[in-house]
Write a structure and sequence with these properties.
By secondary structure, the chain is of the alpha/beta class. The chain has 13 helices and twelve strands. Strand 3, helix 4 and strand 4 form a beta-alpha-beta unit. The protein binds 5-amino-5-deoxy-1-O-phosphono-D-mannitol. It is found in: Cytoplasm.
Length: about 375
């Protein structure tokens, strides 16, 4: 079923444009978000939500962390991300204004399932974002918004991740419309941005060969750091997770703003650092701050690999390598920036002769605690 691909992961990475397109399909009607699966949540109920708690593990939790930025900006509801196993073993504050959203590709992750059950017992309403029809977590939830990434076989999650962000963004825009927190024009623009993503991921996939070369040059690397800011922060964490699980290389992701609070001490000559550079067009003006982080680590000998949008010339004097992503509104950049990081980890794993689809010690779904 690999259909000519050398690994399931390679196939699934290449299927990401479809994973996003299929998750959008049928959910944008006449320029409006439309999520029929959420009909059991009346508009009044959605307007009454005071807080959203997301429960998930691993890559799914990073999808939640990306979506937090978008949902808070669009729908003006506080969103917190909780690792399922941390959530259920304390006494989390849940009330009837709390919506609990679980994210799980498999729909079978034991800790996430138990977190959802716990939340329901406490009276919360629950929505499941899931990629597997009829799995246990959606059955235990009040509503399910399926991601339509298709079956994901490789242990490392890739196409499910971009589909999860897509589903959460659709949800966020739905919530914003119902709550009246976003002007109509902004809603229309955001939906158009989302619909443009599949073609842009396709463009990023066109860079695969360069990323593969980079990975082959770096096959002996013992440690890689990842920096990001805003929505680029969870992407840095995801890039590090991919590298750990696939290539067994020590990797850590940091919020770029934390550098001076500790991590910069790790920088010594030759240390590879991936930097997810925010768009220079972003309203928060984070771009110059991250460019100056790049200068700081470069001055200490870091080998900088920047993931930066097309035309961003400010990174050129300081980065050793620049991987380009097409222009997109800042909140949508994670859907593009994650792709080279997935490919990098996959290629490095392959360069080391490891099993890309089935890394040691890991299972596709963690159905025990
Ligand atoms: O099936 P789930 O989405 O609940 O799985 C969650 C994590 O176990 C999963 O994302 C894991 O972190 C992946 N191996 C990461 O690539």
């Amino acid at each position: 079923e690999k259909g000519g691909w050398s690994s399931f992961m390679r196939k699934e990475v290449s299927e990401q444009p479809d994973a996003v397109a299929n998750t959008i399909r049928g959910r944008i009607v006449d320029g409006e978000v439309h999520i029929p699966e959420l009909e059991s949540f009346g508009d009044d109920e959605l307007r009454g939500i005071r807080r959203i708690t997301v429960v998930a593990c691993g890559t799914a939790a990073y999808a939640g962390q990306v979506a937090k930025y978008a949902i808070e900006q669009w729908a003006r509801v506080p969103v917190e991300i909780e690792l399922s196993h941390e959530f259920r073993y304390r006494e989390p504050v849940i009330d009837d204004g709390t919506l609990v959203i679980s994210i799980s590709q498999s729909g079978e992750t034991m800790d996430t399932l138990m977190a959802v059950k716990y939340a329901r017992e406490q009276g919360a309403r629950t929505i499941s974002i899931c990629n597997t029809q009829g799995a246990t977590i959606p059955r235990e939830s009040d509503a399910v918004v399926y991601t339509h990434a298709g079956p994901e076989v490789a242990v490392a999650s890739t196409k499910a991740f971009v589909a999860q962000i897509t589903a959460l963004y659709l949800f966020g825009l739905h919530l914003a419309r119902v709550r009246g927190t976003l002007p109509h024009g902004a809603l229309v623009d955001a939906l158009a941005e989302l619909q443009a993503i599949p073609a842009k991921i396709e463009e990023v996939l066109g860079e695969s060969e360069r990323v593969a070369q980079l990975a082959h040059w770096m096959a002996d690397t013992r440690s890689v750091l990842f920096l990001g800011r805003h929505v680029g922060f969870p992407i840095a964490l995801e890039g590090a997770l991919k590298l750990k699980e696939l290539a067994y290389i020590h990797a850590e992701g940091f919020a770029a703003g934390e550098l001076k609070h500790g991590p910069i001490a790790l920088i010594e000559p030759g240390q590879p650092v991936f930097v997810v550079v925010p768009s220079p067009r972003g309203s928060a003006n984070l771009h110059p701050k991250v460019v100056s982080n790049i200068q700081e680590i470069r001055a200490r000998g870091a080998r900088v690999i920047a993931i930066a949008e097309a035309g961003d010339a400010a990174v050129l004097p300081f980065a050793d390598e620049v991987i380009r992503i097409p222009l997109a509104a800042p909140l949508f950049e994670p859907l593009l920036a994650v792709v080279p990081l997935q490919i990098f980890a996959m290629e490095l794993s392959q360069a080391k002769g490891l099993d890309v689809d089935q890394p040691r010690n890991l299972a596709k779904s963690v159905t025990v605690e």
